[in-house]
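Translate sequence into structure tokens.
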Amino acid sequence: MYTIQEVSRKSGLSAHTLRYYEKEGLLRSVERSHGGIRQYTDEDLEALGLICCLKNTGMSLQEIARFMALTREGDQTLRERVSLLEKHQKRVIARMEEMQKHLDKVTWKLNFFSDKLQDYEQKKAESASARP
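Result follows.
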């Protein structure tokens, strides 16, 4: 079992974010000690890893909450979960392809301006050495 501070440290998420994820249904209701302190399990940490992955790849919190709710419902929701992940995967691939195009343009511009800079510095050096 882990405290909210330990999970925060392990996940990189603030305690506020962890409580918010629980409140919004992204994370199941976390067990509590007799004193009311949240007690996270390895399963909770695994779920948080998936939540962060989906969020970082652009899935909305609403979609993530839906996916996590389906997961808690069991195997009868496998088809819908697969469908959600397939749609998300397609969106991620499309964004990656778009980002690759942007990266290609940035790389082209970097090479263009690097060549111009090299020419400029070479001409400047030749000009300085030609002076008496």
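Note: Helices lie at 4-11, 15-23, 42-56, 61-73, 78-130.
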